[in-house]
User: What shape does this take?
Amino acid sequence: MTRLCLFGLLFACGLSACSPDVAPVGNAEYATKIVGDWQGTVGDTNETISFAADGRFVSQVRPRGFISNTLSQGVTGTIRGTWAIKGKSITLNISSAEDERVLNRATSSTIETFKPDELVVKSNTGDTSTFVRL
Assistant: This one.
């Protein structure tokens, strides 16, 4: 009887430790499921980006480093523009940038993985960034 109880307890603990794998978002749903607030790290910059249903976005970028992270002395830049998704490609067209220097007015990335609360994109330079839903 003790063995049976011990086996049952171990089985229950094993089941509770398993987390179901979340199904990815289908390509046809990318444009609707991306709407909302996301946070990630791109290179040496922390970034939050809000995708609106009307095709606009606002991004807040903040450099990482000792001063920015510990003393809050870093300047947060704001980038605004529009976004569009075609297939697995997401394109951002920048209309304004405050406290941030942008080299290009448009950029595209490939959506590598899209789950309800996680978005992994690969830039056209080959860098991969992961964003989580806020």
Remarks:
- The first strand starts at residue 36 and ends at 42.
- The CA atoms of residues 23 and 90 lie 20 Å apart.
- Residues 1-19 have pLDDT under 50 and may be disordered.
- The longest helix spans residues 2-17.
